[in-house]
Design a protein that fits this description.
The protein is 41% helix and 15% strand. The protein is of the alpha/beta class. The protein has three domains: 15-86, Orthogonal Bundle (Arc Repressor Mutant, subunit A), CATH 1.10.10; 89-260 and 466-484, ATPase, nucleotide binding domain (Nucleotidyltransferase, domain 5); 269-459, ATPase, nucleotide binding domain (Nucleotidyltransferase, domain 5). A hairpin with a 2-residue loop joins strand 3 and strand 4. The longest helix has 22 residues, at 397-418. The radius of gyration is 23 Å and the shape is globular.
Length: 501
């Protein structure tokens, strides 16, 4: 609790013991830690007086907390009296399982992602060879999958090209190979285990698609059907983590996406949207999903799987939509593109997700669409995927207009249903919406015809790594006492901070 007078334990003892101590420090001083982190991101630096003002507490209360955090080496004080988070105080690993892909991201205590080189330096600090460790991480049985879409000969250039990405990801040969998925998701933890007693890794988060039952068994997962009827405990070997006193947590992939996007909102401030307490994320990647923050709290639903809006029915009678579909198919004929045959989702409904796959992707798998149209960064090229996607839609404007209309439908449903004040589109296709939003081509209205004046619509930057990073943030929240003793989804509550000028 803020301002508690209990003695902060010194950072000594084995790393296994240290993990309990450091989680306790995070739990007891969460508000102050969060305040320093948020305000230093927004304002470059923050001192005690600014922090006390932003948190609405006395300077003496903040100073007591700061003293303990300095003693624990969780924060440091610069010569100009500004406060900084010590990123090396704790680390949080996030793993994402998606269609054909397993991604991983490692965040420091400042919740900023580490790249390959930073990981090398971290392992070097333990007395081991960091370069050899990272190389070992990348070595995988080719039958399971390959790093960076399998182009091993271009590994070095691709790693440099993809600096903003998580520190590693693997391309799985088939999303139906459950054995490969399990081996890859545990591969990263197994490799880190060699150095686990020298690194303050406090928790691991795993983000997966699909709907789970109360026993944490995935029962419905149209995008990665191999996961159906498998427990999430198969996907992450929690017993190994427990042996080293490392907590683990599981989170729905779109909720994980929301955690990182909220972090980015605080970082970039989105023109004052940082403290909006009712937010929807609509993620358009391999599938279509959403996540909600309502009243400042991340909403999970009964089994932690809220947000499967891609399986809403496609509106059967929509004159504008039908007109746009006709325009798009006329455009396909000019480009000699054959319209995909009926794409049925395993939800067995004519859902929006399956319709988007048919009309926009020409395939059940968006990855096939990206590959066929060469919408991917090439070795030696610095043209990002988002720019290649933009160039594609410039040639196919009817397809873009149809895609925008589908997003319009989903956005309106979210506004009418949850009365949110901010919608952020995320995922691989989000950059395609930026100019449409700026040009006001993506407009929303509620049945009361007032939502356009009360809801802000924004498009993300195509953060393909956001789900893996969000899983690591879920791991951070696992350190709080209310989340530590439960296998339920972590509770996350955002408290607005007053703006510090």
């Amino acid at each position: 609790m803020l301002g508690e007078t209990s003695q902060v334990p010194e950072t000594s003892g084995s790393m296994t013991e240290q993990r309990t101590i450091r989680r306790k420090i995070i739990d007891e001083h969460y508000d102050t830690i969060n305040g320093v982190r948020r305000l230093s991101v927004r304002n470059t630096s923050v001192n005690r007086t600014q922090l006390a003002d932003a948190m609405g507490v006395s300077l003496s209360t903040v100073s007591r907390d700061i003293k303990k955090l300095l003693e624990a080496r969780a924060i440091r004080e610069e010569e100009d009296s500004s406060l900084k988070i010590c990123s090396e105080f704790a680390y949080f690993l996030g793993i994402q399982i998606s269609t054909h892909v397993v991604r991983a991201a490692l965040l420091g205590f400042d919740l900023q992602p580490m790249g390959d080189q930073e990981l090398v330096e971290l392992i070097n600090s333990t007395g081991s060879d960091g370069d050899a460790f990272v190389q070992d991480l990348w070595d995988l049985d080719p039958e399971d999958g390959t790093p960076w879409n399998g182009r091993k000969e271009d590994r070095d250039s691709l790693r440099k090209l993809a600096k903003p990405l998580p520190f590693i990801f693997f391309n799985i040969g088939s999303d139906n190979d459950i054995g490969a998925i399990i081996r890859i998701s545990n591969h990263i933890v197994n490799k880190l285990q060699l150095h686990i007693e020298k690194i303050p890794l406090l928790a691991v988060g795993l983000a997966t698609p699909g709907l789970m039952d109360g026993g944490k068994v995935i029962r419905f997962c149209p995008n990665v059907q191999a996961l159906v009827n498998h427990s999430i405990y198969e996907l992450l070997n929690t017993s190994k983590l427990k042996d080293h006193n490392i907590k683990s947590t599981f989170i729905h992939d779109t909720s994980s996406d929301m955690l990182w996007i909220k972090e980015m909102i605080y970082e970039k401030d989105y023109n004052g949207d940082a403290d909006e307490e009712n937010v929807a994320v609509i993620h358009v990647g391999s599938g279509v999903g959403s996540a909600l923050v309502l009243g400042g709290a991340l909403y999970h639903g009964k089994n932690g799987c809220a947000g499967e809006i891609g399986h809403f029915f496609t509106p059967p009678e929509n004159a504008k939509l039908n007109e746009l579909i006709k325009d798009k198919r006329d455009e396909d004929q000019r480009f000699s593109t054959e319209t995909a045959k009926e794409v049925r989702c395993s939800c067995e409904n004519a859902c929006i997700e399956s319709t988007i796959r048919k009309e926009i992707f020409d395939s059940f798998s968006p990855s096939v669409f990206f590959e066929k149209n060469e919408i991917r960064p090439q070795p030696g090229s610095h043209t990002p995927e988002a720019e290649l996607l933009k160039q594609y839609f410039e040639k196919r404007p009817a397809r873009l207009r149809l895609f925008v209309e589908y997003m319009h439908i989903l956005g309106n449903q979210m506004i009418n249903f949850a009365n949110v004040g901010l919608i952020v589109f995320s995922g691989r296709l989000a950059p395609a919406l930026k100019e449409e939003i700026a040009a006001h081509n993506l407009r929303f209205h509620s049945v009361q015809n007032i939502a356009s004046s009360v809801c802000t619509i924004r498009a993300g930057d195509g953060w393909v790594e956001s789900v893996a990073r969000g899983a690591a943030i879920a791991a951070f929240h696992k350190c709080l006492e209310e989340n530590e003793k439960s296998d339920d989804p972590v509770r996350v509550q955002w408290k607005p901070l007053r703006r510090v000028n």
